Amino acid sequence: MISQNMKKLIEKSAGISALFTEAKKMKEQYGAENVYDFGIGNPNVKAPESINKTAIEILQQEDTIILHGYTDTAGYAEVRKKIANHLNRRFDTNFDEENIIMTVGAAGGLNVIFKVLLNPGEEVLTFAPFFSEYTAYAMNAGAVLRAVPPNLETFLPDLTALEQSITKKTKIVLINSPNNPTGVVYDESIIAEIGCILEEKQKEYGTDIYLIADEPYRELVYDGAEVPYVPDYYKNTIVAYSFSKSLSLPGDRIGYLVLPSQLEDYDEIKQGAEVATRVLGFVNAPALQQKVVAECCDELTDVAFYDGNRELLYTALQSYGYQCIKPQGAFYLFVKALEEDDEAFCQKAKQYRLLLTPAIGFGCPGYVRIAYCVSRETIEKSLPAFEALAKSYQ
Amino acid sequence: MISQNMKKLIEKSAGISALFTEAKKMKEQYGAENVYDFGIGNPNVKAPESINKTAIEILQQEDTIILHGYTDTAGYAEVRKKIANHLNRRFDTNFDEENIIMTVGAAGGLNVIFKVLLNPGEEVLTFAPFFSEYTAYAMNAGAVLRAVPPNLETFLPDLTALEQSITKKTKIVLINSPNNPTGVVYDESIIAEIGCILEEKQKEYGTDIYLIADEPYRELVYDGAEVPYVPDYYKNTIVAYSFSKSLSLPGDRIGYLVLPSQLEDYDEIKQGAEVATRVLGFVNAPALQQKVVAECCDELTDVAFYDGNRELLYTALQSYGYQCIKPQGAFYLFVKALEEDDEAFCQKAKQYRLLLTPAIGFGCPGYVRIAYCVSRETIEKSLPAFEALAKSYQ
User: Fold this and answer.
1) What is the ipTM of this complex?
2) Chain B contacts of A271, Cβ < 8 Å?
């Protein structure tokens, strides 16, 4: 008999599991090229060529015992140094290897830092809609995720609602810009304002509130949008980063946490992050991947390709009458479902071989997420299906 | 302010952290070759040559999008199929890809299966001495680790004590053979007897008790010792495996769970293991490493090298008057400290540049663990230091 919590988690993900199973069946039935799968954020852009080239060089040249041995729990020191220097060049920061913890992607990093910071009963506050797994990450640490309700006009953070939502129990405010699932980017004024609110609330309650910036989509921005470097705006900021999207390496499971020295209780947080990396079973981020991203962290995926997908799909969906903001980042469109029940809408979409993700799991029912990190051809071929789906509701 | 639990975990690991820090300092001061570091289980035997060769071939030949993309949560289906076939050949089992979950090492696998099975308040029972991180793994799932007291004569499981220790709360019995830290191997009669006890206790309490076999050292056995395949002896057995030791790949973070179809609630456990893999932040075991071990799982590290280390060190320590059983597996000697306080003994050993691990963290105070997965030269050079240390107590 499995645990009660796991039963609930399985039930919660039953919809998504069913979607996957059905998608697989549909692809077998119709051929993968005739199913328009916008379900998951698995990049269709290849990793830069330097990735495999660098990995091969490392495998050929590196001492085998070092390359396959346990690394420091925080990651190889020279890898962390290179990541720190990379950040210093980009953001004019002053990090060194002591500010970096290599992680098993951002998902691993978030679980590590949640484990470090959260006491049972404490709260993680985030803005709806949000990446659906955040809820479980908070639960893993015995804590609770609470969502600030969405602003359905702009999908930007409702800062008044944030202010009202923070309580003595709020230990973490978790932001994700560029955002999954909406694609919005928080500009400097928003980040600065969040910083001010948290400073005030820390004083008001006499607590530490950590702002965690989950940034796997940092580099995927369009129309010249800028993504402010969050630690510049609020002292107690921790960054969770992943190379899954910026270098198209989601299966490699490699990312890092930035723990600025200015953090309240920096020493304990750093020690805690190492202990958490061990006891959560990560032990160290995969060793070869650490070395590869240290060499390739200045590379960038083909953002123009995603931008092309965005323009094509956004323009077409608008013309068919779908309601959607134009995203400035990430690779998702967040579209109002054409009926109230987003799950029913996704079922209907499947009749047109369109696989979409209902947003109820993102804390924003009535919407769907369309992951446009697919081939251009998939988008082109899907357009008549989107049009027919829209017409079916007229 | 970090969490209260993490504070305790940091305190608990303060001794080990201090040991590492001091070891680093000593190596800088005396030169690494003049410090005899028996502290951690980081194999000194190189990974088989086929590992790097296979990794390079995969990087050169595999479709980049597949190789670096998310894999199925359980791992690539063809990788799981190959692992299943490998097990079927070795153990005359009948597994297929549905019985295998690829994991981030055995540490990742144990955290996954604990998350699936354990309700808050339930108990994991294991035999002292035990790998120190098990305590935290149980805590991660809101559960508690309890230890069956050690048999200080043989360090084999005390089965009467096991029988008496099982309660209605016992959800998991966790065994680790070949054992870290003692090197003992449980023979067929022991495994069969454990199976009988658990069958009886399941009936007595009307509960499911899962036997989890943590087997990173399965292949590291000497003197013809045999390691029974545990699922053959008890229906509700789950195996956690890692390639860290058998292929010298601890930094690669790759292993798997075996979920036999005969498990009570197999379907839910399998679904749960996939959900846990996602929500704990592993997402999938590193993709390249999955493909590498699928090709190389029939390879084996140089067991004879470890055997040579074992004979040399065991014989020498005996002659200096240390008390220790002769291990049949893994790469550890478990030695009685020459004073009551094992931590004080390890401090004393440092004066002779010997780095040992106190066994208090393994639930067996008064002993130390010596990891002999080091170079032959390190062992040879360390012998006079062990002798001098023994003499200092006469």
Assistant:
1) 0.97
2) 10, 17
